[in-house]
Amino acid sequence: MSEECTHECSTCGSSCSERTQEQTNFREKPHELSNIKKVIGVVSGKGGVGKSLVTSMLAVLTKRSNYQTAILDADITGPSIPKSFGLHEKASGSELGLYPVKTKTGISVMSLNLLTENETDPVIWRGPIIAGTVKQFWTDVIWGDVDYMFIDMPPGTGDVPLTVFQSIPVDGLIIVASPQELVGMIVEKAVNMAQMMHIPVLALVENMSYVTCPDCGKEYYVFGESHIDAIAKKFGISTIAKLPIDPKLAAACDSGMIELFDGNWLNNIMKLLESEEM
Ligand SMILES: Nc1ncnc2c1ncn2[C@@H]1O[C@H](COP(=O)(O)OP(=O)(O)OP(=O)(O)O)[C@@H](O)[C@H]1O
Q: Binding residues for ATP, per the UniProt record (predicted)?
């Protein structure tokens, strides 16, 4: 029995002598025309902390390194990926399945906003329908060959993230948090959920960590001293990144130009993704 045993035998993948229940396998197969090598989930404890921004930036970096890249926007009720890439066309389909929409640089994207008639239509669905839609983005979308798929997860640790973790083989998670969250329990909850689902936490990103003065270049930690190093150490997460509050990033998202962002803040996560450890 592992030291981290949660006694949740139905969701545990290890075959140990203490097993009391059969493992229930909820894994869904991707579309037969999809060949997806690595799946990275981007999660946050709560909404609005920059999860979609980090998902978009990591996808842009992998694409810049010439990998076949895809984004599955699992944030069904608040999809923001199409907007940051300036995607307004609708996804098309055939009798074989649905086709993702390509961004200007060739990143494949599927999001509910690419399917609804109006981008502003609210999605007033209950949890199981939302979770079912995410599953369909995995099973019914013809993704083709993908080296890295990033999943922009819905915030929190509820119904939908649980279904995604159970039905899609996620290779690793990147947790995005604001400086305030890093002093509370929200990040701890996300780390604990990852452990319970047996998914490794690859990296921790502190978004809106600091502001750089445009005149003198000095960094100001407006939310107080950063706690990311201590939290990463506590949970044994070796890769961290700090993203400043940068009006250029907000403007790039708003104008659909995130593919043009300039900055090396997430380069060490990129290195990790390309390394043998992944
Ligand atoms: N470091 C940053 N600098 C400037 N603007 C930022 C930064 N991070 C996020 N933003 C802006 O804050 C807003 C929220 O970010 P984003 O949509 O990525 O958050 P989220 O965690 O995905 O939210 P939700 O879960 O509600 O979808 C966006 O308008 C984004 O452009």
A: 45-52
